[in-house]
């Protein structure tokens, strides 16, 4: 079993739609979680951290469910510019070993 | 602030040649990571350092790969000899401390023919 698993998609949604991604992690000792965004032929860039109580940043909401060992990302009012690959990240024991999921591809269409 | 700096941006080499990838982390960051990304395998963690010391190199594919971090501002990833299956984008990333997010360099796109 992979340490971090995501649905690869692709998710094809119209502008203005709400879309949600889930990600599961296998290491119950993981303490820190993040969502990254990666555009084609670019490096991954931090989108947002994921806090235990859930957190929101504009149109983006991240949630953590420790009991079920998954994190989620909700994007409201999708924009064309949201088209990218979204990578979830879990840090291993000690907070250093940073494992990325394979990514979920999102295409937002006009 | 300068981000993570990697060089070269592109490298094309022939099978059997030695390849050296370079990385300068963000000043003040004490952890450094090397990743490899391919379409088939996604983003794979190769090795990471904390305070210049290698902590976990279990992701290094084989003995042909080696990484060093002689000081806090420089790291290298070396492949000797290179093979066509090593073709990938290699990313270096750094973080300030444990449990902190990573900041990535632009990557080195390696092609081995």
Assign a percent range to the helix content of chain A.
under 10%
> How far do the termini of chain B sit from each other?
37 Å
Uncertain segments of chain B are none
Radius of gyration of CA atoms of chain A, rounded to a whole number: 13 Å
Principal-axes geometry of chain B comes out as globular
Run of helices and strands of chain B: EEEEEEEEEEE
Distance between the termini of chain A: 37 Å
How many helix segments of chain A?
0
Q: Fraction of residues of chain B in helices?
A: under 10%
Assembly state (oligomeric): heterodimer
| Secondary-structure class of chain A | mainly beta
Which range does the strand content of chain B fall in?
A: over 45%
Most strands sheet of chain A: 6 strands, mixed
Keywords:
heterodimer; A: 110 residues; mainly beta; six-stranded mixed β-sheet; five-stranded antiparallel β-sheet; 53% strand; B: 113 residues; seven-stranded mixed β-sheet; four-stranded antiparallel β-sheet; 0% helix
Topology:
The complex is a heterodimer of chains A (110) and B (113).
Chain A: E1 4-6, E2 11-14, E3 19-25, E4 33-38, E5 45-50, E6 55-57, E7 60-65, E8 70-75, E9 84-91, E10 98-100, E11 104-109
Chain B: E1 5-7, E2 10-13, E3 19-24, E4 31-38, E5 42-50, E6 53-56, E7 65-71, E8 74-79, E9 88-95, E10 103-104, E11 108-112
Parallel strand pairs in B: 2-11
Antiparallel strand pairs in B: 1-3, 3-8, 4-5, 4-9, 5-6, 7-8, 9-10, 9-11
């Amino acid at each position: 079993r992979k340490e971090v698993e995501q649905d690869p998609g692709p998710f094809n949604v119209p502008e203005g739609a709400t879309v949600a991604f889930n990600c599961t992690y296998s290491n119950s000792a993981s303490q820190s979680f993040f969502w990254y965004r990666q555009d084609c032929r670019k490096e991954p860039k931090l989108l947002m951290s994921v806090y235990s109580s859930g957190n929101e940043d504009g149109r983006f909401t991240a949630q953590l469910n420790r009991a079920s060992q998954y994190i989620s990302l909700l994007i409201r009012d999708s924009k064309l510019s949201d088209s990218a690959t979204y990578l979830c990240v879990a840090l291993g024991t000690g907070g250093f070993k940073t494992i990325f999921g394979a990514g979920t591809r999102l295409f937002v269409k006009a | 602030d300068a981000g993570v700096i990697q060089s070269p941006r592109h490298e094309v080499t022939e099978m059997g040649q030695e390849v050296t990838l370079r990385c300068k982390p963000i000043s003040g960051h004490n952890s450094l990571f090397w990743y490899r990304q391919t379409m088939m395998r996604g983003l794979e963690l190769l090795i990471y350092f904390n305070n210049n010391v290698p902590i976990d190199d279990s992701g290094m594919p084989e003995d042909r790969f080696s990484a060093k971090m002689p000081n806090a501002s420089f790291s290298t990833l070396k492949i000797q000899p290179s093979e066509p299956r090593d073709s990938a984008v290699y990313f270096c990333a750094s973080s300030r401390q444990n449990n902190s997010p990573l900041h990535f360099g632009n990557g080195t796109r390696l092609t081995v023919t």
